[in-house]
Amino acid sequence: MKPVLFANARIVDPSQGLDEVTSLLMQDGRVAGIGRDVHGPEGAQILDVAGLVMAPGLIDVHVHLREPGQEDRETIATGALSAVAGGFTGICAMPNTDPVIDNQGAVGFVKAKGEAAALARVYPIGCVSVGQRGERLAEFGEMTAAGAVAVSDDGHPVMSSHLMRTALEYARTFGIPVADHCEDLALAAGGAMHEGIVSTRLGLKGIPAAAEEIHVARDIILAELTGGHVHLCHMSTRGSVELIRRAKHRGLQVTAEAAPHHFTLTHERCDGYDTSAKMNPPLREAEDRDAIRGALADGTIDCIATDHAPHHYDAKEREFDDAPNGIIGLETALSLAWRELVLSGRMTLPALIDRMSCAPARLWHLGGGTLRPGSPADLVLFDPAAEWRVEPARLRSRSRNTPWAGETLPGVVRATYVGGRSVFVRTGDPADGASAGKRRQA
Amino acid sequence: MNAALLGKDLVGLESLTPEQITAILDTAEPFKEVSERPIKKVPALRGKTIVNLFFEASTRTRISFEFAEKRLSADTVNVQAAGSSVSKGETLVDTARNLEAMRIDMVVIRHGSSGAAQFLGQRIRSNVINAGDGTHEHPTQGLLDLLTLRDRFGRIAGLKVCIVGDVLHSRVARSNIWGLTKLGADVGVCGPPTLLPSHVTDLGVTVFRRIEEAIEWADALNVLRLQLERMTAGFIPSLREYNRVFGVTTDRLSRAPKDLLILHPGPMNRGVEIDSDVADGPHSVILPQVTNGVAVRMAVLYLLAGGSPDWASTGGET
Amino acid sequence: MGRVLARMASELVEQTASGGDLVLVGIQRRGVQLADRLAALVAPQLGRSLRRGTLDITLYRDDLQAIGPRPEVHETRLPADLNGAIVVIVDDVLFTGRTVRAALDEIADFGRPRRVLLAVLVDRGGRELPIAADVTGLAVNAAPDDHVAVLVRELDGDDAVDLIAGATR
Fold first, then answer.
1. Are A296 and A50 in contact (CB under 8 A)?
2. What's the Cα-to-Cα distance from A49 to each of A322, A436, A441, A442, rounded to whole Å?
3. Per-residue burial over A40-68, b = 16 or more CB atoms within 10 Å of its CB, e = otherwise
4. How far, in Å, are A101, A179, B306 from residue A176 at the CA level?
């Protein structure tokens, strides 16, 4: 790999407190230096990326890659490609595949597939319980030795408080978080959307906010009891935000994530029984969406994670009750965050990069999340002034289930590098997302 | 092809204007007379093919639609489809496309999922009539209830109508709420809080905590059937308690300040939500509801058919 | 109009002189008013009982698509027993004959009259079916795209027959 000097990028790296237009030298797969006076050795490629933002590669701690077992919707390779197209250099793969990832062999399989794809770094997550059945603990030790970075029964909540407690205690041995899908199944059972005026009008059974908040409260209490690290997945309600805020105020080891749809859309999107608005936890009220935005701004919610959930077209082309939950999100995340959080003035760009890169890396003890000289060159270049049109057929994911189909979003990922290798470059084809404000490279 | 008064489909009353609802009720009047004739048939829909696509078992609604269709001289086919797309094989989309391929003019659908009628209507060219989708709407029931009230009171505006019972799970209740509020009635709901939907007051209705208060206030009661499953699912402790606290009993009605009209969509759980004496008594219009049901369904089919797809002129493939 | 109706009434009485139960059935809408007036004129001359009926043929039309977005179906009321009666269909304008065909179908669904006669105020020609009036008020030579309408006092405030040339062109 030739050394590359990126010149004139606005480099935003909160891990170094950096936000300035300067140059970065990438050599031997690492960041070799940052500064105006940095220059490359003989033969280095010089790229003038004036107008672009450069940031440490984004990291998504909550992604469903569907392999093994559901490869018609996504594979580790197609998911990793979708990731780099969205500017992500690291993704954590949830274990609710078929079969689930509850043993070292399965963890090794996911890791190997990710390495073979050689795109975004794929970090396997192991199950909390064997078979995700919520009965007994999976082998955290064996799984972490094989490469698992966290445990989760996501797809399901850990209903038994005893199991959650023991999971948190046991996970301490390996320094990994227990990521919980917070949902009281007794309250939520059969629900298809948020319980509110829209569900009443549509005649759909609703999932009350309480179903999430009850488990959030429980998990916070157990985190305090055990001293373990609980990570709260896909937060969606203002009540949850309140609980987390108070927990952090007391210094508890609680981290949380939120998905772009929860800071962008509300339950009104379900009108007309649109299954592209069906997910779990569901889209909530405007006040909840606003609370999530505020929580990301003030750091109560530590990171943005997409909960990328590929589903086949046929599966979503169904009566609302029967349609599966979830939408894809890797390729739209940065644009949505840019629009809803930064362009709107709610957050600064450095704060956003923290939520999408530095914080996930730091809190889950993953590599990346920084452009400090010497660190692996995992970085993203994006054009904040350009726009692109979401055309499902052109997305890199194998699935098409996105509610933003046909919409024009701001912010275009121009290139992604993992370990100094170029793993994604957006072509100049206008259909591929080049439009007003496109910059040319020298 | 004309744009019919109602558009292509009848999915619910929520999307209709007061004028459209009134037009349907007005059109139902002459159809009442047809059912009184010795030959209960008019050729208005002669040659039209109508499929009754019922995913949920329902004798009375299906029979009512069947009479309506046959009295309009349409050709009727009953399809008892099994369950949901997921559980039983052929998806609703495929069922829809197969029907369209057979050049069906109209489909009357009853399905267990809210939104199923709209889902079907968006995917086939035939007219789609919602005979009940999940807990969303049952528009022809709402319409026949309105017609029955109008018959007795001469108007809907200003009437005080209270819907009693399991409003949460009731598509009949929702359709009634939409129809009544659009035509200017005052609507109340009464039932155990566990069986009233959240945000129900946002729909413009008053909540009565006790049946006695509702009876004191209303001109008419629409009593909903209480299903056994509600007890096993924990919404109410027992049927007996429900009757004791919320039952429309002769005793309670005797203390009503006015002559309350009693409606019930059927089938009735005698002795649970309604006493036999009340159901069979002089204030009950349960049987006229059934008669009006056929007339209303004839009116709906007739009005929709005015804008139904003309297969001949479109020359085959879409 | 009064004179025309009087003449029609006499002709009607003549044609039904052979006896039998007479039923005057007016077709909605203006045929109803005309039938009312004819009945009043016929009754004293008749010497036997006369029954009235009204008929709306909208549900028997052969052109469902052309009805329009808001079809209005008016009252149909016929005496219970038509079997063996003499039915006189009364309408305002006879044009293509399709309305009368629909009326014949509808009457057949109510019973089997001994005889059916047709009395119209205006015959404008332009028949599309083999239908002829037994009693005609006045014959008018109208082109296919002319508009011929009868106005009655009870509904329109005045009695008149309008011919508007080229109105439907």
1. no
2. 47, 16, 6, 8
3. beeebeebbbebbbbbbbbbbbbbbbbbb
4. 16, 9, 67
Q: What is the DSSP letter of C125?
A: -
| Of the partner residues B112, B114, B198, the one whose CB lies closest to the CB of residue A202 | B114
Spatial separation of the C-alpha atoms in residues A45 and B229, rounded to whole Å: 72
Helices B116-123 and B92-101 pack at an angle, to 10 degrees, of: 40
Q: pLDDT tens, A48-75?
A: 999 999 999 999 999 999 999 999 999 9
Query: What is the DSSP track for B117-150?
Result: HHHHHHH-SSEEEEEEETTTB-HHHHHHHHHHHH
For the question of residue A219 being annotated catalytic, the response is no
Chains C and A make contact, 3+ CB pairs within 8 Å: no
B97 band by pLDDT with thresholds 50, 70 and 90: confident
Within 8 A of B23 by CB-CB distance, chain C residues are 70
Question: A199 CB contacts (<8 Å, ≥6 apart)?
Answer: A192, A193, A205, A206, A267, A270, B197, B198
Identify which of A191-205, B216-230, C39-53, C66-80 has the greatest average pLDDT.
A191-205
How many other β-carbons are positioned within 10 Å of the β-carbon of residue A326? Answer: 24
Do B211 and A219 touch, CB atoms closer than 8 A?
A: no
Q: How far apart are CA A409 and CA A339, in angstroms?
A: 8
Contact yes or no for A129/A160 (Cβ under 8 A): no
Distance CA C117, CA C94 (A): 13
d(CA C35, CA C24): 6
CB A155 within 8 A of CB A69: no
* HEC string for C28-58: CCHHHHHHHHHHHHHHHHHCCCEEEEEECCH
Q: What six digits make up the tokens of A232?
A: 């709260």
Query: Exactly one of A153, A184, A307, A383 is catalytic; which is it?
Result: A307
C-alpha pair distances (Å), A136 with each of A158, A184, A223: 11, 19, 19
- Report the run of H or E that residue A373 belongs to, with start and end: none
Per DSSP, C67 falls in state G
Q: Which distant-in-sequence residues (6+ apart) come within 8 Å of C78 by Cβ? A: C23, C25, C53, C54, C55, C107, C110
Contact present, B286 and B248 (Cβ < 8 Å): no
Which whole-number Å values give the CA distances from B21 to A14, B72, C74, in the listed order? 61, 21, 18
Mutate to test the interface with A, among B55, B119, B202 (most CBs of A within 10 A): B119
CB A259 within 8 A of CB A306: yes
Pairing of strands A88-93, A193-194: unpaired
- The answer to whether the Cβ–Cβ distance between B92 and A319 falls below 8 Å is yes
- Token representation of residue A49: 């990326």
Tokens of B253: 């009605």
ipTM of the complex: 0.85
What residue has token string 């009876």?
B215
Antiparallel, parallel or unpaired: β A178-180 and A230-232: parallel
Residues whose CB is less than 8 angstroms from the CB of residue A389 and which lie 6 or more positions away in sequence, other chains included = A406, A407, A408, A409, A433, A435
Side chain identity at residue A222, one-letter code: L
Closest among A204, A186, A183, A185 to A194, alpha carbons compared: A204
- Tokens 């007036």 belong to C37
Q: Average the pLDDT over B235-258 and give the result.
A: 92
- SS3 string, A254-310, reads EEEEECHHHHHCCHHHHHHHCHHHCCCCCCCCHHHHHHHHHHHHHCCCCEECCCECC
Contacts with B, C 94-113, CB within 8 Å: 105-106, 109-111
| Tens digits of residue pLDDT in B28-64 | 998 998 888 888 888 889 989 999 999 888 889 999 9
Q: Answer yes or no: are the C-beta atoms of A442 and A46 closer than 8 Å.
A: yes
Token pair of B299 as six digits: 């009116």
CB contact under 8 A, B171 and A203: yes
